[in-house]
Amino acid sequence: MNINLDVEVIDDGLSTIVELVGEIDAYTAPVLKESLLPLTEEAGANIIVDLEKVNYMDSTGLGVFISALKSSKEHESKLKLIHLQERVYRLFKITSLDSIITIDTTVRGGN
């Protein structure tokens, strides 16, 4: 099993930035969930997930972001996704999740 996702969490004082590099699928989603969900449980937290270097995501990844959104609403924190590549953004759009998750609409290129 090849786990091809790097997660880096950076606290800049105002926000917590989660930089992701690789692919989000059934194998890597638990790694993402383990890193992301605890951040959403802090009241007032501002979490920004940078997906610029994520070139593939399947429905398991969507599930993680739905869980994170639900947790952020329960704990009164904020979740925002930024720098989505076109193919990843398309997943949010076709599932209408782009209407409930805050996504920076500056879509990056990519295959």
Automatic annotation (TrEMBL):
Pfam name, any one: STAS
PROSITE patterns: STAS
Annotated keywords: Phosphoprotein
Coiled coil feature spans: none
GO molecular function: anti-sigma factor antagonist activity
NCBIfam families membership: ant_ant_sig
UniProt protein name: Anti-sigma factor antagonist
Organism: Natronobacillus azotifigens
